[in-house]
Description:
Blueprint: H1 7-21, H2 25-28, H3 31-36, E1 48-65, E2 73-86, E3 94-100, E4 109-113, H4 128-132, E5 135-140, H5 151-154, E6 156-158, E7 161-162, H6 164-189, E8 199-205, H7 207-216, E9 225-229, H8 235-241, H9 244-252, H10 258-272, H11 286-292, E10 302-305, E11 338-341, H12 344-355, E12 381-383, E13 388-390, H13 395-405, H14 421-434, H15 447-451, E14 455-461, H16 469-484, H17 489-497, E15 500-505, H18 526-536, E16 543-547, E17 550-553, E18 559-563, E19 568-572, H19 575-580
Parallel strand pairs: 4-5, 4-8, 8-9, 9-14, 14-15
Antiparallel strand pairs: 1-2, 2-3, 3-5, 6-7, 10-11, 12-13, 16-17, 18-19
Helix pairs in contact: 6-7, 8-13, 8-14, 9-12, 16-17
The structure holds calcium ion.
Amino acid sequence: xxxxxxxxxxxxxxxxxxxxxxxxxxxxxxxxxxxxxxxxxxxxxxxxxxxxxxxxxxxxxxxxxxxxxxxxxxxxxxxxxxxxxxxxxxxxxxxxxxxxxxxxxxxxxxxxxxxxxxxxxxxxxxxxxxxxxxxxxxxxxxxxxxxxxxxxxxxxxxxxxxxxxxxxxxxxxxxxxxxxxxxxxxxxxxxxxxxxxxxxxxxxxxxxxxxxxxxxxxxxxxxxxxxxxxxxxxxxxxxxxxxxxxxxxxxxxxxxxxxxxxxxxxxxxxxxxxxxxxxxxxxxxxxxxxxxxxxxxxxxxxxxxxxxxxxxxxxxxxxxxxxxxxxxxxxxxxxxxxxxxxxxxxxxxxxxxxxxxxxxxxxxxxxxxxxxxxxxxxxxxxxxxxxxxxxxxxxxxxxxxxxxxxxxxxxxxxxxxxxxxxxxxxxxxxxxxxxxxxxxxxxxxxxxxxxxxxxxxxxxxxxxxxxxxxxxxxxxxxxxxxxxxxxxxxxxxxxxxxxxxxxxxxxxxxxxxxxxxxxxxxxxxxxxxxxxxxxxxxxxxxxxxxxxxxxxxxxxxxxxxxxxxxxxxxxxxxxxxxxxxxxxxxxxxxxxx
Length: 593
Ligand code: CA
């Protein structure tokens, strides 16, 4: 039986709270104090042992932080890192690291943050978002050996042998543990009484977006609010699909110079910009663009790009969008001057790429980025020896096949020659089945999450060239159909509005604003917005945006539209547009949510 709180226990709780309130960040940021606050998990399912001797602390003051996901701010924090192991596993060490705000800034909040590419964390790029809102903010290393070790480095124990512990840790388990420990640690650090709630949040984009969904789909009540950006879910389809542009080009036998595809893209932006009712360099209605713009109109238009000494990719070993690394985006060597006119073959590639993969029976396999997006997955590389453009397999797609499907310690396919669209379909199906309960992350029913009071803000750049925006729409619509298929379309989306809202960022790229459509902006205060929804019950009709002249982001299925020569902004319902975002993935004879 649970004992009643005695007056003594209550008053000692108050004294403890007062003591915690008087602690400076320097007082907190000691090994002795943080060790005394280590969580002792009461979750019987976790099966972990914390190593108290592993605690490290480091104090940071007056640090200027900035990101797409929070306004530039100067913050103080203490970084506390410790390790734990899973009972019954040998040589198992998982490290977690938490940024702790000063006592006077703490607002009874905890935040988990995620990674990008095949990284399970984003180092210290995402966690400041939590400190800014008075949260203890955590990352995990997944047990992969260090905070910089990515999942693919530990995925195989040997050729043919999967490290399933690492796979499930990456899939969802590490984040579950990070959150359970983090919430308790935050409570202990600030001696928050048991009768006060610690609000728990999640924020991540790309792989980090998938990690957020992996939690919402499994652990109702763990997070009160999540911000999931451009999630890398439907993992097998997504990764395999990165090969779709290359397979198209090999099949058609045409390797468009990058300048040609860039010209087609720029002409598309110019032609479709005004369809949203405002000429501002932003294609806020790529759906109308898809319905009315004809790539054929670009044939014969001249293009020119000067020679380049190379580079591209991401400098050094720093991470690119969503935590991707140089290995996945290798950049390019020197390229020659490109001078020509847009060809019928180039347009055929652009058209087929935008249409998305269709198998040899005419059935739809998958979907691709919206028109006016960069053709990233169709990007060719200059082969100086041959004096010709060629397609190299995407590292994400090729590595998915060699390492995760064929189980070979090999980071990419040698070539795409002979690979058919049907082969891509079959790879997708194989990987989906193999990793259905670890990486796929498309469980479509969220009733438990909703019942526990959780809220999700799901955001996606409309012109994301890495993870198509339509991928997020497809999941949202799967959830709607599974949970509310008995309701009309509008009633179904209204029912989801209670706890799950999707926002498509006009012109947005992958987890960031788009350099090709700079006025589009990015929603920089999503965490603040979900906090307001959770803690004050203020559900966001639109998201605040940094875009020049686009201050609001409409929530799906409403779409932005300006009238009065771009003076009056509205979020409108347009059935034809909504329909253009819908895909039936009938190349698979089982549901692909
Ligand atoms: Ca526009």
